[in-house]
Design a protein that fits this description.
alpha/beta
Length: 605
Amino acid sequence: MNNPIIPHSSYSNRSSSRFCTHFLCLLLVLILFASPASSCTEEDRSSLLRFLAGLSHDGGLAASWRPDIDCCHAWEGVICDGEGTVTEVSLPSRGLHGSISPSSLAGLTGLTRLNLSHNALSGGLPPELMYSASLVVLDVSFNSLDGVLPPLPMLMTGLKHPLQLQVLNISTNNLHGEIPESIGQLKKLEVIRLSNNNMSGNLPSSLGNCTRLTTIDLKMNSFSGDLGSVDFSSLHNLRALDLLHNDFSGVIPESIYSCNNLTALRLSSNQIHGEISSKIGDLKYLSFLSITENSFSDIAKTLHAFKSSWNLTTLFIGENFWGEVIPQDETIESLESIRHLSIYRCSLIGNIPLWLSKLKNLEVLDLSNNQLTGPMPSWINSFNNLFYLDVSNNSFTGQIPATLIEIPMLKSDDYKAHRTILFDLPVYVTTLSRQYRAVTSFPALLNLSANSLTSVIPPKIGELKALTHLDFSSNQLQGEIPPSICNLTNLQVLDLSRNYLTGPIPEALNKLNFLSKFNISDNDLEGPIPTGGQMNTFSSSSFAGNPKLCGSMLATCDSVGVAHTIPTISEDQQCSSKTISAIAFGVFFGIGVLYDQLVLSRYYG
């Protein structure tokens, strides 16, 4: 085969091209090494040193922030551009104590990002910093800053160039006072987080001028007044509005329903009243809604209002609709996307409605603290994904349905592997001191306590291997504790107290290595208390009110006969015995029971 003939001119051109390429690359490398990066400017170095001098505890920062070292090259947390201008200071969680003086960091004229979060800084926030002409991100969250949110200084009014601030995070400090009207000057603001402070007053109308806002987080303050003071219709980019735990009043303003990109809305723990408008269906992307602990009315209209909310997965509406009848309308079928539903503490009347069985995606269902009656529905096992069921403090009667033991997710060895979804907003527990971001943070829970359920604990209860919390307390259950309950090796909480259970305590309960709360008090159990494992960690109050029990913490087994004939007593005598027992041990258990109910029913803040 003949080799192709390459023209001489073509070969020569290629050689020249390669030579030029190599030469240019070498020249570029020489230029880079011959021209060291620009040094920190004297103005920026002085500003940083003034900040350092204002700290009462620098967390070891002075070791690298030395005057004899270039601040752009070796100072911890400092980043510069190619001109030697400081553009970023990032010092989160460094144990810094002290204040931020106006003449320090505000003097960094090229600063775009400042992160001093999770320290112990005190004093006020300099207005020159908040309204800096260059700053894009300001994060001083989780400190001890006090004073007010500074208004725009008079000298800065009438600025020719818009302020650049896009992210303002001052959450978890000690700020008080109102949000200044000058907040509207931050035209480029996208995220404002002022949660967990002591701020108060009405929201300024100028907040509606920040049309680029995507997140407004004002939870856990004392803001008040009517939300109608802000025209939310101009905030078309708003995705999350969190006003949890304030003192807002009035009704939900119609303008909120114009925020057509809103995905998460939380108005819980305020004083808002009225009805939920059908216009909430205009929020096509809404996936998280929490309005708990307000004074809303007409639960039937509320549920029908979500007929177009196809993306709604989390709905918390408890502590509203006081004393209303839970709707039985089977036309309520637009909630099929719901995964987490809480309608607790409303004193609702009626039976568990059939339309609930259509919510095939349910994972968490809380109907606790109502006045629901009738038997537990047999279709309860139709929820293939359900792993959290709380119907405590109602008036359900009849037996525990056998189908309850057939809930697929509670029988799974690893239910968490199937649940990886994050909440759009953190879900708070009890006193707002604990938060859950993921669905998997919730326990696998079955709580039927404080009802009027009868008969026996289902013998197959041990098949619900995923369970971590099991509470059948304060019912009228009889018979023995089934030995299969010892197969629930993930159990952390087991409460069977205040029933009519008889027979011995299963010995294998001492194999439940994760059990941290255990209560079988106020029954008619007998025989020795098992020893070993976690059983050795529980006090006598866990077993009290069972005169036939014996063990090291109670009467010795030598002084108590283990074989007793259980007399048949009338229902009136049982009720009388229960009342006396409750009074006798109320001092010991009252606080604990109250705590349990708060923990197990207040997951939705």
